[in-house]
C-alpha cells in the first residue's frame, strides 16, 4: 500500500504500449471493483432495512390478525321475570334498578341450560367453567335489550353473545390445551366443551366488525375491547389539525416566502421554525397542559385540546415543505405575471400557489400522518386514559373525553390479560392502514399535479 | 383570500369554545397503575348500570396521581386519586396549600405481591432472609460485613434450586418497590440477624436500615421502571429470572409463570386475607369532598366502588385478584357519611 504513489508513474508508463480499450488495466479494475463494492453496500443496506420491515410486519400481522375475528355463542336466554322485574310492572325505570350482576345469573342459567340441552357431559367440568364460557359483556348486552323492550321479560329470547377471552383465544390458537392445564382462568375441560359446542354449530368464529366499533373495555373483558372511541378521537383531532394547522401554516409560508422582507427578524423566525420542527413532541404536551387546560380552562382528555396541541406540533412540519414548494416555482412565472400587469397578490394566488399545490398537499398529508401517530403530547392532557363513552357528534363531541389510536395501543400493551396483546397488534394494523392510505394519497396527489420545467 | 377567511373563522371558533367550555359531566380519576384495573372494572359496571357517564380513568403512578389531585379544587382538577400506599404528610401539606382540605380516604382492599419465575423453571420456596442475602449489597458472612458475591440461589439457602440469581424488581417510582423493601428485604435483614451485625459493626440504627435496603448493583437486581408486562417480557427472554408481580397479574398469566412460596405459604386471596402470606399492602383511593355535589355521580360512584356487589369477596374485583377488605362495612359507612381524613 505504501508504494502506491510510487507505482503510479510506472502504471502510466505501462499503459501506453498496451492501451487497448478492450483490455482493462489495473487502475480501471480497481475503480470498477470499488464501484461494485459500493453498490453491494447499498444493496446490503436496503436488504437489512427490508428484513427489519418484514420481521416487524410479520410479527404485527401474525399477532394482530386474531383481533379481527371473534367467537360468538348463540344461546336462548329465558328472561326470568322474578329476577329482572321483581315489581312485575314492566316499568323500565324500576327495572333499571336490577344491576348487570343479576343479569349475569340469568345468563349463567341460560348457558348451563344450553350445555344440558346438548347432553354434553365432560368429566371434571365445573360450573364456573360453564359460566365463564361467555363474556361479562353479555350481561350488559342483555340488560340494554331488556330495558329497551321491557315486554320481552318472561319470554325466551335468542342472543348472540361474545365468548370469554380464553375461549376465543382457543379458536384462534392463542390458548392451547397445554397452556390451559396451567391457566387458572380456563381448563382443558372448558376448552373441550367449547369445541363440542363449536362442532354443533352453536359457537362460531367470524369477522369482527365490532373491533372497529366497540369502546375500550376493562381488564376483565378483553373480548369486548374495540377501537371505536380511539378512531373517533383520532378523527376529531385530525379535523382540528386540518382546520387550524393547514390555513395557518400555508398563510405563514406564503407571507414569509413571497412578501416578507429579508431581514434579521425574518431570519430569526426562520431559524425558530426549523428549531420547533425538531422539538420533542412531549414538550408540546407540557405547553398544551399549561396553555389550554390550566389557562384557557378547556376540559381534560378532550380531542379539542389534543387537536390544538398537535396543531402546534404540526405547524412547523407544514410550513417547511410548503416554503420549499413555493421556492421551487421558477421566478420566471412570477416575473411573467408581474410583467403582464398582475399585482403581487394576483401573481401569488393565481400562478404561484396553484403550481405549488402538489408540494403543499404532500407536506400537509405527511404532517397529518405524523400527528396521527403521536402519543407523547397526549399523555399530559389526559387522553391516555380508560375512556368508554363514545364522544358525541360535532361540534360538542370535541369537548367530550376521547382516546386516540396510538394511545389505545399503548394502553393495551400494559394490560395483564394476554388477549390485550392481540388487540394491541390489531390496533397497530388499523393505524398502519390509515398511515398507508395517507401516504399513498400524498404520492398520488404529487404524481397527478406535479409539473416539471 | 379564502385562506384568510378560513383562518379568521377558525380562530373565532377557538375563542368561542374556550369561553364556552361546558361543565364536566364525567368523573376524572388518576393515579396508581396497580389500582387502575380495579378502577376500570368498577367504572365499566358503573357506566352500564347508572345513569351517569363512564368515569375517565388515567394511570401514571401513585405519586403523580396525588400530585394532580392536590393541584386544587375545581372542574379542571381530578376528583379521585388512586393510590397503592397511604398519602404522605408532604402530599397532605401540598393539598392543604392548594385548598384541597376535605379528603375522603377509601380503602378498597388488599393486594398481594408475589415472586414468580418462568413456568418451565424449578419450584422456589423463598424466605425473606433468602431474598435479603441474594439481593442486598452488603451481607454478613462469618460475623463480618462483606460485599454480596452470591451467584446462585443455593448459595444463599441450600434448599433453593441451583439457578443463577437474577431478579426483576419494580423501579423506585413504583409503590410496589416500597412494600418489597419493607416487607421482604427489611424483614429478611432482621430475620437473618444482619441488622444486628450491621449495628454491631458500628452503624447507627438509620445507617443499618439504609444498609439493609441498599440493593446490589452488579446487574443481579434489575430495576423495571415499566409495568408488569415488561417484567414478564424480561422473564420470557431470560428464563432464569425471577420477577416481582401483583397477585392479579400473576393470576391472569398462570400459564406462563410459576409462583414461589414465602415461608411455605402460597400466595392466594385466601392466604393474604388471613394474613398468612406476609407480602401484601392496602390499596386506596382519595376523593375530594368539595367535588361531591359539583360533579354529578361522584358520591354514587364512590359508594358503588365499595359496595358488597363489587368489592365484596364474591364480586368482580375479588375475582380479578383483589383481596377484599374484612372491614368493608366500616368503609361503606364512612363513605355514606362522607367522613374526611383528620
TrEMBL record, chain B:
<feature type="signal peptide">
    <location>
        <begin position="1"/>
        <end position="22"/>
    </location>
</feature>
<dbReference type="InterPro" id="IPR050811">
    <property type="entry name" value="Phosphate_ABC_transporter"/>
</dbReference>
<protein>
    <submittedName>
        <fullName>Substrate-binding domain-containing protein</fullName>
    </submittedName>
</protein>
<dbReference type="Pfam" id="PF12849">
    <property type="entry name" value="PBP_like_2"/>
</dbReference>
<feature type="domain" description="PBP">
    <location>
        <begin position="17"/>
        <end position="309"/>
    </location>
</feature>
<keyword id="KW-0732">Signal</keyword>
<dbReference type="InterPro" id="IPR024370">
    <property type="entry name" value="PBP_domain"/>
</dbReference>
